[in-house]
Design brief:
The structure holds two protein chains of two kinds. Chain A has a five-stranded mixed beta barrel with strand order 2-4-5-7-6. Chain A has three helices and seven strands, in the order αβαββββββα. Chain A is elongated. Chain A has two domains: about 30 residues; about 110 residues, Nucleic acid-binding proteins (OB fold (Dihydrolipoamide Acetyltransferase, E2P), Beta Barrel), CATH 2.40.50. The longest helix of chain A has 27 residues. Helices cover about 30% and strands about 30% of the residues of chain A. The N and C termini of chain B lie far apart (about 65 Å). Chain B folds into four domains: about 160 residues, Four Helix Bundle (Hemerythrin (Met), subunit A) (Up-down Bundle); about 210 residues, no CATH class; about 120 residues, no CATH class; about 100 residues, no CATH class. In chain B, α8 runs antiparallel to α18, α9 runs antiparallel to α12 and α15 crosses α16. The chains are: A alpha+beta, B alpha+beta.
């Protein structure tokens, strides 16, 4: 084998390994963004989802001692019960948008491992309440990070 | 009046930059020095005018001129003095001004340093730098005008994003932008080399230190960003693979590759094409990062918003890449290597592999960051990959890079003989094996942690072997120990600066490994007087206190931390800003070399009877910051002018 062939072969091995690592990484850590109606239509147990919706009025329960948080996320067409272990994040509340990351369980609820929320960074006069519409929230929350 | 002056200054600066770029190019083409001189004057004028823009915007902040939209959004009457200054570059418009000003500053330094020393390349370098400048001034005048008015002017402003009210925010953007703009200099030299056809080593030699300067500031910016994330964002981490972080990390990776590959070109006349491509790629990635984070195509925690600016950056990026590719194709024949690889076991191939791995890492970061866009475009699904993807793919690459960090600097050029290998690597390999056994005996059972620590010890040992050998050589000439070591650092500052940087990287690696492998956390709700326990620490909740600060209202919990004896009281808080929809966490921590105790206040009862707290014990995180300091010191050492050896 010539030196050049060795380097070409080495390069091919590295490229193949990299390609495989990326492929495996994507398949193992891909998180699908769904709305409550999309999830309800075709829930897959164990698959990683990022579910975005509005916290339904009157659905929020928070047990500080047990750190149990439960609420219902809806999008006007369907609702999904969600449970989470841990403190509700700062932006969280009824009638507000939220994105939760987790998976659908066989027991018929969504177990959230992470609750994400994002500020709207648009200009807001101080104290102008929460008159934000659902569409606007969905737009800003899509792909929201920690 | 002041804002109009600022806008006018930006427009005139744009005209001057355009003229300067054209004049410099024409001067280079026709060989008329008067045109180049005129371009130089234009560059000076641009610097003065951009400085004026910066000063006028700062003045508007200090004078609370809320008729300026940007001021009204990013400050209010309660904003403390420091943050009125840093607020100037706290959001999009002002940060572009800061960027442009730093670019103008670099252009001046290039003029001062290189107008004599690089006669042939210089006019084109000036033309390229002024063209880039013109682009940024176009953004300032059209896409993101910082001086735009807000009518009617509000009585009070909205205020700076509270997360940016932090000392780190003074230095982080400045350092990062000094890095980004610094890349423009080697890029301009690379383009000048392609245009003039002088694609040899001149541009590499001239920009060697410039590249280290840019790299130094990029590294500093990333490190300060990590520190900010750790002590402000309140999730106990320093790196989240957020698109904004990735945007800065990608050019850092390719710049790191470039720093190493230039050595191969200097020494062995190889990789000409590769070096040009790398520096073009690095510059392109700085633009791409700005596009990514400022265009709103990918949402991110600290991405500012949007407007037309994304299209501007994407368009300019396309222009830059097309021009560069065209030039590369045009000079293709001149770009062949003079040297050639002699052996697979050689320093050249270690460096080559290092480059391939660094670029591969940059590619995976790129892929993961734009993956949501790709998936939506190709398959129509909304899907993203998070931190697990980046960790999974990058950890093997970084481990291989750490290994090469030990091999590269010591292995022989051209072809390493078995004797060379034995002489250089026997002790380090022995040290690595001993370290593996030691950590195993200590009870470390994570294979990844053992492997990382083993490699770290191996690399540290290679550095020790090299340094002690060189020191002993000097001692034989009769020097004493300390002067010998000092002289070594100073005389071979590039080599040993590099070693110090490597040591810094090892310390950062130690911190990352420790925090990933051994940090623990718990979350619990405590009644007043109750305590929680974690990793030998006992944390007791003593109650809440509220206070009114100049621009926010603060609720702080008092938690007494002890581990047998009382260590102190930590006061994590929640800060309520009137302009924000929700409170901002104010974490509190006790830093240590071995571990940090880190508290985040969660939910609390208004009467102070109970509070939820997240308690973390983060292991070895401090070594990341210590490593960062070492790394920047090493880069500083490498930047110093090289001393000629006495004849």
């Amino acid at each position: 084998m010539t030196r050049k062939a060795k380097f070409v072969a080495g390069g091919a091995v590295i490229a193949a390994a990299l390609g495989y690592m990326i492929y495996a990484g994507v398949t193992q850590s891909a998180v699908y963004f769904v709305t409550p109606s999309e999830l309800v239509a075709a829930p897959v147990v164990g698959k990683a989802y990022r579910l975005g919706g509005m916290v339904e009025a009157g659905s929020l329960r928070w047990e500080p001692r047990a750190l149990d948080l439960s609420f219902t996320l809806g999008d006007g067409k369907a609702t999904v019960p969600v449970r989470h272990k841990g403190t509700p994040p700062d932006l969280f509340g009824e009638g507000r948008g939220a994105v939760v990351e987790g998976s659908w369980t066989a027991d018929g609820y969504f177990r959230a491992s992470l609750i994400l929320a994002k500020h709207s960074e648009e200009y807001k006069a101080p104290h102008d309440g929460d008159g934000t519409k659902y569409q606007e929230l969905m737009r800003t929350l899509k792909g929201a990070e920690r | 009046m002041i804002p109009e002056l600022g806008s006018a200054a930006a427009i005139v600066a744009l005209a001057l930059a355009l003229w300067g770029a054209a004049a410099a190019a024409a001067g280079a083409g026709t060989g008329r020095p008067a045109l180049v001189l005129s371009a130089q004057h234009a560059a000076l004028g641009v610097f003065v005018l951009v400085t004026a823009c910066f000063a006028l915007l700062s003045y508007a902040f200090l004078a609370f001129d809320f008729s300026v939209r940007y001021v009204a959004i990013n400050t209010n009457l309660g904003t403390p003095f420091y943050y009125r200054i840093t607020g100037v570059w706290g959001a999009l418009e002002g940060s572009i001004i800061l960027w442009t000003w730093l670019l103008a500053l670099y252009t001046l330094v290039v003029i001062l340093r290189h107008r004599e020393s690089a006669r042939e390349l210089y006019p084109w370098v000036l033309a390229v730098m002024l063209s880039v400048m013109a682009f940024f001034l176009l953004v300032i005048t059209v896409a993101a005008p910082p001086f735009a008015r807000l009518t009617p002017a509000p009585a009070d402003g909205r205020g700076l994003n509270p997360l940016l009210e932090d000392t780190g925010m003074i230095t982080h953007p400045v350092a990062l932008y000094l890095g980004f703009t610094g890349v423009t200099v080697p890029f301009a030299f690379a383009l000048a080399a392609l245009i003039t056809g002088r694609v040899g080593d001149a541009w590499i030699t001239l920009t060697r230190r410039w590249t280290i300067v840019a790299w130094y500031f990029l590294s500093l910016g990333l490190l300060i960003g990590g520190w900010w994330s750790y002590h402000v964002l309140g999730w106990g981490g320093y790196w989240a693979w957020d698109p904004v972080e990735n945007a800065a990390f990608m050019p850092w990776l390719t710049a790191t590759a470039f720093l190493h590959s230039v050595m191969v070109q200097e020494r062995r006349r190889m990789l000409k094409l590769w070096n040009l491509a790398l520096v073009i790629l690095t510059f392109g990635l700085t633009l791409f990062g700005t596009f990514l984070t400022r265009s709103g195509v990918i949402a991110s925690v600290h991405a500012f918003t949007q407007g037309t600016i994304g299209a501007f950056f994407l368009g300019f990026l396309a222009l830059v890449l097309l021009t560069a590719l065209g030039l590369l194709a045009w000079r293709w024949d001149a770009l062949g290597a003079q040297g050639e690889l002699d052996s697979v076991v050689s320093r050249e191939s270690a460096f080559l592999l290092n480059n391939v791995l660094l670029v591969a890492a940059a590619f995976t970061v790129f892929f993961g960051t734009v993956f949501p866009l790709l998936a939506e475009a190709v398959r129509g699904v909304k899907v993203s990959v998070g931190a697990p993807f980046f960790n999974q793919v990058n950890v093997p690459l970084f481990l291989a890079l750490i290994f090469l960090m030990g091999v590269g600097p010591l292995i022989a050029w051209r072809r390493a003989s078995p004797d060379n290998l034995r002489r250089n690597f026997l002790w380090p390999v022995a040290a690595g094996v001993a370290a593996a056994a030691f950590f195993w005996a200590l009870g470390v059972r994570s294979a990844l942690a053992v492997l990382t620590l083993t490699l770290t010890v191996f690399v540290a040992a290679t550095i020790a072997v090299d340094f002690s050998r060189a020191t002993r050589a000097r001692l034989r000439t009769g020097e004493r120990l300390l002067p010998a070591m000092g002289g070594l650092l100073r005389r071979h500052n590039r080599r040993y600066g590099g070693f110090v940087v490597h040591l810094g990287v090892l310390l950062v690696t130690l911190g990352v490994t420790g925090s990933q492998a051994w940090s623990v956390q718990t979350e619990t709700t405590l009644r007043r007087g109750e305590h929680a326990e974690l990793a030998g620490y006992r944390v007791r909740f003593d109650g809440l206190s509220a206070s009114e600060e100049s621009n926010h209202f603060k609720v702080a919990g008092a938690f007494t931390v002890s581990n047998g004896r009382v260590l102190g009281v930590l006061r994590p808080a929640k800060k309520f800003y009137p302009q924000e929809q929700s409170p901002i966490a104010g974490v509190d921590y006790r830093l240590g070399l071995r571990e940090d105790v880190y508290l985040v206040l969660g939910d609390f009862a208004r009467d102070g009877s109970h509070a939820t707290v997240k308690l973390q014990v983060n292991r070895l995180v401090s070594w990341i910051w210590i490593g960062g300091v070492v790394l920047t010191l090493g880069a500083g050492l490498a930047i110093l002018p090289e001393r000629k050896k006495p004849a």
